[in-house]
Design goal:
alpha+beta; 3 domains; 27 helices; 19 strands; 14% strand; elongated
């Protein structure tokens, strides 16, 4: 393979966020690797999913969401996969994208996003401020096996993963467990986040572990506010789908043009809603600056009294009733009378009056005349009405910054992935394998799956020796014999099922377990980090041995059976 192909195959093994940004096909390769994994197919045997295929589609999503919420937590720290530096990684990727283009689009290389969302230094946000500005994290996207294995780490009671890991896990589980066709699931990556759009009903966003329906997107709660941030403030760099992918920075796309156009239209429809009194109230719930300008009018013993909207929403938090729907009267009736004021400040806006105006006029947010009328009705007594109305429009009409299809070359030479929900796991693996050599994502899926029978060892070794800093740092204070003894004492079990699938050294180190072959590879990585030259890793008679210049470094029992039994590492 060419050097570029080799780099891409090796990146499919480590699957870091920066590698997926450079090689967008990797996002769907991870989805396919998870779909081929026995782990997610085992979920179908859990009593929690009994009868799930008979449920309505959204009910299936809810069932799956609850399972994911209970079995996985979000994790994005600097310790799990260690650190690298910008200079090294920019040089590595220079043959694919220029450093300037990468820095403008990727959070690890300088991108800071919209000032509204990222009003703090991005390096402080991620805990990188204690390092030099050149240091960046190796945030690796975990396979389902690596996500499950987090339970072996101190401080974790369940599995874990970062946003790309969770997005890929959900996409695979939607297909395997919930029976949702893959064609209905679109994976979206922004410079700082990844999430899925599922084409069901009015659309559903899967944001980390949570489901966000269109109604939830506009409900004004803190959770929906967090879910809105990426699409409101960042451009979407990658959209991935079984038909292919599209990337903001590449002029070639492999996604089916009709599928991308349909997705774009449905996502835009999901992100738009008409202005109603309830939506106006939801906007104010989420916007404290505008909210402080409003009061509610409420009759007490036949006399109008006034309550600040801030106070009204504070009472809402511990009540089954809401300020913004038909239960408002019940909520206000529970508030002590002495909380209400006898008069309304001249600089405040009475929400009841604005609601009546919105209801009677049926405001069209695309009509300048309607917007001007709304500004006049609100007035400038508290803050500029034009600023407030602009924020209302932004709340109701989010315009996603998707990759532009204009001028793109849509390459449809690759056959798409055509997996059916009725397929068995063996049929799935056979189909993905049948696409090798013709579909890049399918080809790379076996590297992401860590299959050392179907793939050559060299890309795996490159990843193991070049991009596993945690085990080197963790063993730095130990003598060679001490490292061997410590590793030998760990359970002799791989986190990956089967005889041909192997863990990387930092996975073995983090989870304190591994097959003997994986342990020997870990030792090779530690010694290479100390300046040792090439070593020989050999598998024979159920034993993996590592030797250097004729000296045996270590030997461990192994049940693995990769295609190549002698490796130079």
């Amino acid at each position: 393979m060419t050097q570029q192909e080799f780099e891409r195959c090796s990146s499919a093994v480590t699957l870091s966020d920066m590698e997926i940004f450079i090689f967008p096909e990797l996002m769907y390769s991870l989805v396919l690797a998870n779909i081929m994994s026995p782990r997610i197919w085992q979920w179908r045997e859990d009593p929690w999913f009994k009868g799930i295929r008979k449920m309505k589609p959204y009910r299936r999503l809810q069932r799956l969401k609850q399972y994911v919420m209970e079995h996985y937590v979000f994790n994005l720290d600097l310790e799990t996969w260690g650190l690298t530096d910008q200079k090294r990684e920019l040089a590595r990727f220079s043959g694919f994208l220029s450093p300037e283009v990468i820095a403008q689009s990727n959070a690890l290389f300088g991108y800071e996003g919209d000032t509204y969302y990222f009003d703090i230094d991005i390096r402080t946000h991620f805990g990188l401020d204690k390092y030099t500005s050149d240091v960046i994290p190796y945030w690796k996207t975990e396979t389902v096996e690596a996500m499950d294995a987090f339970r072996h780490r101190p401080g974790f009671a369940t599995g874990a993963g970062e946003c790309v890991s969770l997005a890929a896990l959900y996409a695979a589980a939607l297909f395997v467990v919930a029976g949702i066709p893959l064609e209905k699931v679109f994976l979206m990556a922004t410079p700082l986040h990844s999430q899925n759009f599922v084409d069901l009903d009015d659309g559903v966003l899967i944001n980390n572990r949570r489901l966000v329906t269109k109604a939830m997107w506009f409900n004004g709660t803190q959770i929906s506010g967090q879910a809105r941030r990426a699409l409101e403030n960042e451009r979407v760099t990658i959209v991935s789908h079984p038909s292919g992918c599209i990337h903001t920075l590449y002029r070639r796309a492999t996604i089916e043009p009709a599928a991308f156009a349909d997705f774009s239209a449905k996502l835009r429809k999901y992100l738009r809603t008409p202005l109603t009194p309830e939506i106006l109230g939801n906007f104010l719930r989420q916007n404290p600056r505008c909210r402080q300008c409003f009061v509610l009018r409420w009759p007490v013993n036949g006399v109008d009294r006034y309550l600040s909207l801030d106070q009204a929403f504070s009472f809402e938090q511990d009540s089954p009733y809401k300020v913004t729907d038909a239960t408002r009267d019940k909520l206000l009736a529970t508030i002590p009378v002495e909380t209400f004021a006898a008069s309304c400040s001249c600089c405040k806006v009475v929400l009841n009056d604005i609601e009546a105006f919105v209801r009677e006029r049926s405001i069209d947010l695309d009509d300048p005349a309607d917007l001007q009328a709304l500004k006049v009705q609100i007035g400038d007594s508290c803050m500029r009405a034009s600023d407030m109305v602009a924020q209302v429009v932004r709340f109701c009409h989010t315009e996603p910054r998707l990759p532009s299809a204009e001028g793109l070359a849509f390459d449809r030479s690759e056959p798409p992935v055509r997996l059916l929900t009725e397929m068995t796991r063996d049929e799935v693996v056979a189909h993905v394998e049948s696409l090798r050599g013709r579909n890049v994502a399918a080809e790379l899926a076996f590297y992401a799956w860590r299959d050392l029978v179907r793939t050559p060892s060299a890309p795996f070794i490159r990843a193991a020796m070049d991009r596993n800093p945690v085990s080197r740092a963790g063993a730095a204070s130990l003598a060679e014999a001490e490292v061997v003894a410590q590793v030998a004492a760990w359970p002799n079990e791989s986190i990956y099922d089967g005889a041909a699938r192997l863990a990387q050294p930092d996975e073995v180190w983090n989870y304190r377990r591994g097959d003997g072959f994986e342990k020997a590879l870990l030792m090779a990585n530690v010694l290479r980090g100390r300046g040792h030259g090439a070593m020989r890793l050999e598998l024979a008679a159920g034993e993996a041995s590592l030797s250097e210049g004729g000296r045996q470094v270590c030997a461990f029992p192994s049940a693995k059976a990769p295609a190549e039994t002698v490796w130079s590492v």
